[in-house]
Amino acid sequence: MQSKAAVSLALFVSALATILLVGHAQAQPNRGGFGGRNQPPPPSWIEPGYNDHQHMLDQLGINKLRPGKNGGNQSGPGFDEATANEWMPTLPDALTMNDGTKVTSPEQWPQRRAEIVEDFEREIYGRIPDNVPAVKWEVTETTEGTVGEFPILTKTLVGHVDSSAFPEITVDIQASFTVPANADGPVPMFMQFGGWFGGFGRGDGRLNTNGVAYQALSHGWGYGTINPNSIQPDRGGNALRQGIIGLANKGQPRKPDDWGALRAWGWGVSQLIDYFEAHPDAKVDPKKVAIEGVSRYGKAALVTQAFDQRVAAALVASSGEGGAKLHRHDFGEAVENLTSSGEYHWMAGNFIKYGAADINGRSMDASDLPVDSHQLIALCAPRPCFISYGVEPGDPKWVDTPGSYRAGILASHVYELLGKEGYGTEVKDWVHEPLPEVGTLKGGDLAFRQHEGGHTSAPNIPHFFEWVGEYVESPVRVGE
């Protein structure tokens, strides 16, 4: 067994490699459509010339899509608050049933929640198929080390997905988690979307290099990572007939309401919670797992908590369109940016309809959506959810911080119906409500904080741990 000093050094080196790789991946343009650069040759079960994006357009009857906004020129139409709210009159009410009945008691919420879930599954993020294969977890490495004065125990896991129904596709979920080595019982777990080949099993780069490991341990928490790309590749085209989506479909194309990558990544977290439930020796409390992600992984973190009610808390950072941002707030990244061949793979195929200039002779836009992101946030209630953003230029207009904050204002009504604390009911003109002062934590069980940094969660990590301790009980702090 390696010495504690050697393991600590390995943790740091691999952490540094991870942060560089994660940063590189987030900075690169997503070349997900068929025919884009860096596309590998199609596997044997995909017919030559197959175009996945076009195949979905054909299924939906879409003849023409509207182009997305240009993120390189964030000014003018689409980046002006004065013209951002024309679709707000069409915004659905989170507390009104589909038949018009008002939800006025907590007892009515499960029925209304089910309606919202159905709309999101059918039209936005897609459904997890009933035949999704089982996962068998294997511990591939166990190491000891230290973070500061805290002794730790790290386990590297691989979740082998049963491929017997379609052996051509192999899916091995990569995950890693660390707990205080001297914990007497199960601890809460802070899981992050991240981790890459070469850095797994040694902790996540952003966690270890910005002090999150120390933050977690000093609050009686463990920390870990799950690699989303080991579940479903972060690209469209032929990749959607591979990964867990392709495996469940036995290599065939998606139907319009099949799951996209965001839902698939969340499914992976759910499988990890299953592991914690089945293995108490892991010293992780499966009822106290929090999920964190930034940017596309911020979207995934919110989707994960919204759909899996076992997720105890979430830190949703800089999530933008497809995450906490209101679709109907026409400011920054928009629906059309997620319906193009570059990013459609995050969503269900049906979502592409809302970027259509011509679908069976008509056009559709964000005002036609049956739901919006305030209802996605509301699906997290009554569990604690922390929405995080940075400031410009690091978090530019593109991510639409105001539109995300206002979505939380509307979701607060559901939290308050369930006896929890949101942003408060004093907000009347939510459409034009300004952001709280930078550095101010707004709310309670549903919280919002804009930090001084850019497109990262790092400056809000200490505030998350101070905040979440009010809602997720942790053991006595290690070392006390």
From TrEMBL:
Region of interest (Disordered), residue spans: 29-48
Source organism of the structure: Aeoliella straminimaris
Superkingdom field: Bacteria
A Pfam family reported for this protein in Swiss-Prot or TrEMBL: GCE_fung
Signal peptide (residue range): 1-27
Domain 4-O-methyl-glucuronoyl methylesterase-like per the UniProt entry, residue ranges: 258-419
Listed name of the protein: 4-O-methyl-glucuronoyl methylesterase-like domain-containing protein
GO molecular function: carboxylic ester hydrolase activity
Stored InterPro entries: AB_hydrolase_fold, GCE-like_dom
Keyword terms, alphabetized: Hydrolase, Serine esterase, Signal
Entry's transmembrane regions: none
UniProt entry tagged with the keyword Signal: yes
